[in-house]
Fold this sequence. Notes:
Blueprint: H1 2-37
Amino acid sequence: MADHDDLRKKRKSRNLVLGSLLIGLAVLFYAITIVRMG
């Protein structure tokens, strides 16, 4: 059971990292667009 929990924790933390990376890229592109318009 412990292995299953560890796997779930690793998957969740990896998903959080990937999600924040995607959000960061979206914010970056948004900022670049604003700067180009300005």
